[in-house]
Amino acid sequence: VDLSSFDFKTGKMMPSKLQKKKRRLWNDPLNQNKGKPDLNTTLPIRLTTSIFKQPVTKVTNHPSNKVKSDPQQMNEQPHQLFWEKRLQGLSASDVTEQIIKSMELPKGLQGVGPGNNDETLLLAVASALHTSSAPITGQISAAVEKNPAVWLNTSQPLCKAFIVTDEDIRRQEERVQQVRKKLEEALMADILSRAADTEEMDIEMDIGDEA
């Protein structure tokens, strides 16, 4: 019970003393009851007329702000060493369950690492082309042949460093043109065959109607 405004002589409460005390506490700069610092680091909630809580967006791209992005989102996922070995023994097959012959690697692609073969290297290069946006250069470090478990670059397939020349590009363009020509001939033959079948069916239907 606060007895600071109680007059012990008269035995009564003195409102004037209570008002003086409140005025003194209000003008006191050292009074801790005026306010306390907010040490809460959570994002504030936008208070609007809506009944739902709307979160406030935290902007980190201010020129004076050194933190440009969340470092946790920039970390790359670790890669397992020699994960290409899990592709060994895998092969594609057609609808008749016959194994499709795999492509032949160019002479410039040479495998590196223990137990690596051309089939596994082909699958590793195809996987790198489809899953990575970085250029495929192979293992640039020469020390990878001595100790691949230490110097291996897991973001690149298990092959030696190679360079694609203009001659390689020209030969590949010729192969693409040959394949396109064969595809065009096959499509044209299919169209002619379908047209001939349709014509035969029409003739048979006309003969049936006349009979």
Automatic annotation (TrEMBL):
Recorded superkingdom: Eukaryota
InterPro entries per record: MBD2/MBD3_p55-bd, MeCpG-bd_2/3_C_dom
Organism: Sarcophilus harrisii
Composition-biased stretches (Polar residues): 29-41
Domain called Methyl-CpG binding protein 2/3 C-terminal: residue spans: 98-187
Identification of the protein by name: Methyl-CpG binding domain protein 2
Domain spans labelled Methyl-CpG-binding: 27-92
GO annotation terms (biological process): DNA methylation-dependent constitutive heterochromatin formation; negative regulation of transcription by RNA polymerase II
GO cellular component, one term: nucleus
Disordered: annotated segments: 14-41
GO molecular function: methyl-CpG binding
Pfam families linked: MBD_C, MBDa
